[in-house]
């Protein structure tokens, strides 16, 4: 079940990249790729984040998720993604300075054990 959910979620968010990728193919070569570290030193926030940063991160992440998993499922997934993000990651998501890096970070967060466990609990 966990593997299926993880693959489904990754495919859902990756679908956003494919849709956007067709429009941005010409500039894709000029853009540096974002590689998230294998281990993040900071712990998840557990509600310590500034509400405005978390709200802005939700504004950025929600459309990415809703495009592939609309409605309550997408809302639950968005919440789980944001819940597993560190303060620095929430800042990056909220800033949304590089859409490709934002998508890559969202995919990284989506594949975290905490996110998968949260999504499994929320969707079962």
**Count of β-strands:** 0
Q: How many individual domains?
A: 1
Return Rg in Å. 14 Å
Helix count equals: 7
Fraction of residues in H or I helices: over 70%
In N-to-C order, the SSE pattern is HHHHHHH
Describe the global form. globular
Strand content: under 5%
Q: Largest sheet, described in full?
A: none
| Structural classification | mainly alpha
Distance between the termini: 10 Å
Mean pLDDT: 75
List segments where confidence is low: pLDDT < 50 over at least 5 consecutive residues.
1-5, 11-44
Summarize the model shown:
This protein has 124 residues and is mainly alpha-helical. The chain has one domain (2-21, 49-123).
Q: How do the strands and helices of this protein lay out in sequence?
A:
Blueprint: H1 2-23, H2 25-28, H3 51-66, H4 72-84, H5 87-95, H6 99-110, H7 113-123
Helix pairs in contact: 1-6, 3-4, 3-5, 4-7
